[in-house]
Design goal:
Helix 10 packs across helix 11 and helix 15 packs antiparallel against helix 16. The longest helix has 26 residues. 30% of the residues are buried. Helix 3 links the parallel strand 3 and strand 4. This protein folds into two domains: 218 residues, Glycerol-3-phosphate (1)-acyltransferase (3-Layer(aba) Sandwich); 215 residues, no CATH class. It is of the alpha/beta class. 63% of the residues lie in helices and 10% in strands. It contains 18 helices and eight strands. Strands 1, 2, 3, 4, 5, 6, 7 and 8 form an eight-stranded mixed sheet that branches.
Length: 442
């Protein structure tokens, strides 16, 4: 029997999907996709995604996949009678983890049975196979649950079900902040039927093999480094920022470049340790120089006339302040609430997004009504709201880039007062853009 969803659940899902689609369009500046055709693979399928950003990752998958996606959710979310009642009826299947069972033996037999029944009905199931969320770019160890569910489902259906595993790697430019970019990389599907022979010979080996294959494929979709190579990842992130300032911002292209950098630097760290240490030291020295002198890399790049930019900033000041004041509640109340909670950083983007969904429409509606009470004409409230939204985005850009102009002013003072330091910082950046980039890209 093909998967069907009731009219009420369908209406709820479609409404939430529309809100998420619209909100993500505001929250993230640009969303780049590679291999998107793989994500069009029809159900039944299991979607495996990395999980650095809690609820955001889940919403992304639901937004991207053209299907009614159900989710394997940790048992802790079902801990109260109310949450258990809601989640059991809203697209979630409970799964137990060690932290959820308080020392007793984990029992997911019923959850696996539910998952198999759902997939047998040609459903689409999302599994965060790392088992938990942590704010980092690497892929942590993939748990065996996804492989066990996939193989168990196929065994229950005599291996006749066309079940596929779809992988998605999500890379955030700034995971906790709005107004930045993100990249989705979709991998080619894994056909679960390919594991039948091994499964019938040795169930455990089949689970381990499929889990390893998921791990390998997922790592290829991310800017993955092992924990012992944390220094490589931090160095690459700095180089990405400099590369973006120097050559522009094509995230799909930058992803493949960054993958090459990681491979090269990890290899150098192992086999050419002195050369790696030289690169690492040069990059860190440049960052220290920027910090000591209150500069930014964008400022050191020095493209465009400083005076033209300063005049532009001057003329833009009043519109930016107006946009900031009129969006004070909509833009900054979520930040204020999150800052006062002291929550784990990985949850901040999720909470901001949820608050944005409710705060933006309410505050703009309230401001619309207040302006309407002033009797300034029939079009005044609409014109006010449209201009408020547009100037709000302008204000966000204006104040976010203010540090670069300040940095350019400091750089000019550095050139006048301490030319030797000015020449040194320019020389350090030139070493990175003209030598290090070529060395690690070749």
């Amino acid at each position: 029997m093909k998967f069907k969803i009731g009219i009420i659940l369908r209406a709820i899902y479609n409404t939430v999907w529309a809100i998420v689609w619209f909100t993500f369009g505001i929250f993230y500046k640009k969303q780049t996709r590679t291999g998107a055709q793989h994500f069009e693979t029809p159900a039944p399928c299991i979607i495996i995604g990395n999980h650095p950003n809690t609820l955001i990752d889940v919403l992304i998958i639901a937004k991207e996949k053209k299907a009614y996606v159900y989710f394997l959710a940790n048992a802790g979310l079902f801990s109260t009678k109310i949450s258990n009642w809601i989640l059991s009826r809203l697209y979630a299947i409970k799964i137990e983890r060690p932290k959820d069972v308080k020392g007793r033996r984990i029992d997911n037999a019923d959850s696996f049975k539910q998952s198999a029944a759902f997939l047998t009905r040609y459903g689409t199931l999302f599994i965060a196979a790392e088992g938990s969320s942590k704010l980092e770019r690497r892929l942590r160890k993939v748990k065996t649950g996804a492989a066990r569910i996939a193989l168990d489902t196929m065994q229950r259906n005599d291996w006749e079900l066309p079940l596929k595993i779809l992988t998605c790697g999500i890379t955030y430019e700034k995971p906790k902040l709005a107004g930045y970019d993100m990249v989705y990389n979709y991998g080619d599907p894994i056909d679960v039927k390919d594991y039948r022979e091994l499964y019938e010979q040795d169930t455990v080996k089949a689970v381990k093999k499929l889990t390893r294959d998921i791990q390998t494929k997922m790592q290829s979709l991310l800017l993955h480094t092992d924990p012992e190579d944390e220094d490589v990842d931090k160095t690459v992130q700095i180089l990405e920022h400099i590369h973006k300032n120097e050559f522009g911002n094509d995230h799909a292209a930058q992803f493949s470049i960054s993958k090459k950098w990681i491979t090269k630097l990890v290899d150098m760290k192992t086999h050419q340790h002195d050369a790696y240490n030289t690169i690492y030291t040069q990059v860190q020295d440049y960052c220290d120089m920027l910090k000591t002198n209150g500069l930014t890399d964008k400022a050191v790049q020095e493209k465009g006339s400083f005076f033209v930019q300063a005049i532009g900033r001057l003329f833009g000041f009043i519109p930016a302040v107006w946009g900031w004041l009129n969006n004070l509640i909509a833009f900054y109340l979520p930040d204020f609430i999150v800052s006062k909670t002291g929550m784990y950083p990985g949850y901040t983007a999720s909470i901001k997004l949820l608050l944005t969904v409710w705060i933006f429409p309410f505050t703009y509606w309230l401001q619309y009504k207040v302006v309407g009470m002033l009797d300034l004409g029939p079009w005044a409230p609409l014109i006010y709201i449209i201009s408020t939204i547009l100037l709000g985005f302008f204000a966000m850009w204006y104040f976010r880039t203010h540090k670069n102009l300040t940095g350019r002013w400091r750089l000019r003072r550095l050139k006048s007062n301490t030319p030797a330091v000015y020449e040194e910082v320019k020389k350090q950046r030139l070493t990175i853009t003209d030598h290090i980039f070529k060395q690690i890209t070749s």
